Amino acid sequence: MATTDKKAEGGIVETIKTVVYALLIAGVFRTLFFQPFWIPSGSMKDTLLVGDFLFVNKMAYGYSQYSCPFSLCPIKGRLFGSEPERGDVVVFRHPVNGSDFIKRLIGLPGDTIQMVNGVLHINGEAVKLEADGTFAEPFAKQGPVGYYPRCSNSPVGEGGTCEKEKWIETLPNGVRHSILNVGNGFGDNTKVFAVPEGQYFFMGDNRDNSEDSRYAQVSGGVGFVPAEYLIGRADRVMFSSAGRSLFFFWTWRPDRFFKAVE
Fold it and tell me: pLDDT digit string (tens) for 152-178?
């Protein structure tokens, strides 16, 4: 009887060891290499859609305090840091509320950024814009949170076609990416933002539906983001589901599996 009890105890101990080792390995992988990230909102449409799942490349910019879960890395500044490039799609820690955000890097240290009638100006020059048709999607609740998309053709009934203008924006370094426009918004005309040294300016590609650096942190916006708050670069969508749950296989988007983030 004692032998049986010892075997049972030994089996429990081995199971606990296995779970602990697995968690340690997963923690190291998540901290040093790739962090999983679900897209919860439509602020980066149509580059990223609600329900996209991706791995964030944490090696891209080096490591900081915010590279570890719960911001527990004992690092000041950045370790093995490298500079992000304008146009990168970046996951970063919000400097005030502690949430992880994903936006496109628009302004580098020393830049001036301004929106004039919906057109982005960098260092006093308007970026190139090319009309690219219409982005259309069903007017329905999206993702686990259940947000409805904003439409330029509102009002749209449940299940109707929600439309937005689509443009190709070319940044000064040649990066081309899609942006969406719903209509006149609060962020279409801004003051001139002078990006401080060691900080960055981010914007969402869905320009009229994004809390980003155009809005002050005291009002819930992102403001300027210090370098140590950068977590990593989004390189590729691994999986995508348009439904309220990833288990609704009929809502999966196979055309987005392994899709490069541009």
Answer: 998 999 999 999 999 999 999 999 999
Instruction: Please give the Cα distance from 194 to 210 (Å, whole number).
Output: 20
In single-letter form, the type of residue at position 104 comes to: R
Taking only the tens place, the pLDDT of each residue in 223-260 is 999 999 999 999 999 999 987 777 788 889 999 999 99
Cα(47)–Cα(203) distance, rounded to whole angstroms? 13
Catalytic residue flag (residue 71): no
The yes-or-no answer on residue 43 being catalytic is yes
Instruction: State how far the Cα of 161 lies from the Cα of 177, in Å rounded to an integer.
Output: 23
Residues 176 and 132: their CA atoms lie apart, in Å, by 12
Q: What distances in angstroms separate CA 167 from CA 132, 163, 188, 256, 262, one per listed residue? A: 5, 13, 15, 20, 14
Considering the candidates 43, 67, 210, 240, report the single residue annotated as catalytic: 43
pTM (two decimals): 0.85
d(CA 183, CA 151): 9
Helical (H) or strand (E) element with 3: helix 2-32
Positive or negative, the CA dihedral 101, 106, 108, 109 is: negative
| CA distance linking residue 122 with residue 101, whole number of Å | 22
Instruction: Report in angstroms the alpha-carbon separations of 31 from 69, 90, 225.
Output: 7, 16, 20
Listed residue (27, 29, 28, 53) closest to 39, CA to CA = 53
Active-site residue identified among 45, 103, 164, 166: 103
Name the region of 179 (left: φ>0; alpha: ψ -120 to 50; beta: rest). Answer: beta
Whether the upstream peptide bond of residue 111 has omega within 30° of 0, thus cis, is no
